[in-house]
Amino acid sequence: PPPAGDVGLVVTRQFWLRVIGVRDGSPAARAGLQTGDFVRMIDGKSTRDLSGIAGMRLLRGAPGSKVSLTIVRGNPSDPHVFDLVRAVPSTEVLTQKPLPNGAVHVRIASFAPSVVTGLRQMFDAMPKNKITHAVIDVRGTADGAIEDGIAAARLFVKAGTLAVRGGRGDEKVNTTAGDGDGAVTLPVVVLMSNGTAGAAEVFAAALGGNNRAELVGEPTAGIAAVQKLVKLPENHGLWLTYARYFTVDGKDPIHERGLRPTYGVEIPRVGFDELRPTTDEPLAKAAERARAVYILKK
After folding, report:
1. Could you write out the DSSP letters of every residue in 208-257?
2. In the chain, which ranges are E strands?
3. Cα distance between residue 221 and residue 52, in whole Å
């Protein structure tokens, strides 16, 4: 089994390794790493010739062990070194906080198998707590199985196509909503960013493509594929993408293109020495959109 500790980063290859998602509460999040950062070195070793998979392996290790990351943000001639201590990932992947005017902020940090049950219980309790609309926040959410993203979408989409998967040929496999799906009817918007990837992208595509939610924020990462490791001779391997996900109408691949928001909002990036904003403007704007949708449907 892989080592139990990690730093909470999901990375892909883009010349060096580029950070896609940063898990909430992880060592990387506490250090202030963010989507779009480049990992130039891991423990003094250049990532120039590393695959994303090999990079993820180097980031993992025994809980309590240290790893040193050389990070480039914006200016390549001004790298910063971050010494992180690997930790066991938190099991708290779903949280909620009240917002003004009867709204709630639902944060999905990772699409773990527990998310579906958690969302169902959360939304079941909302009407009696006078909650009328919600922002589902998947900014920087890049963890989790795509199947769990589809399962979560079932809660919100009563009828229609939930996901479209295609291989090398023209044939596509559709996953559709069925009896008992769409139990959650509360108006929602999905808040997303450049770091929204994988299961979170497929979840957002299902809600957006079925007119169940407005998509607010930035274009997503465009990483929604099914991959496997193929063994080659002499201890070599090939990480093969053999299927990718499309928008629910089957027209556009999510993989390598990403989703476009219905309502664009820039997610601020903070320089190494800059203070983080004290208010969450993108969340406030998403809450405004959710309220507008709720008023329209009243």
Report:
1. HHTTSEEEEES------EEEEEEEETTTEEEEEEEEEEE-TTSSSBSTTT
2. 9-14, 16-22, 38-42, 45-46, 66-72, 80-85, 94-99, 103-108, 133-137, 161-166, 172-176, 188-192, 213-217, 225-232, 236-246, 263-264
3. 14
CA atoms of 176 and 233, how far apart (whole Å):
41
Q: pTM of the entire structure? A: 0.93
Model pLDDT for residues 232-277, shown as the tens digit of each residue: 887 777 666 778 999 999 999 999 899 999 999 999 999 998 888 8
For residue 182, the Cα-to-chain-centroid distance in whole angstroms is 22
Could you tell me if 233 and 215 are in contact, meaning their C-beta atoms sit under 8 angstroms apart? no
Which of 266, 291, 281, 140 is CA-nearest to residue 204?
140
Phi, psi of 212 (to 5 degrees): -95, -20
Question: What is each CA distance from 53 to 49, 148, 217, 227, 278, in whole angstroms?
Answer: 12, 21, 28, 11, 35
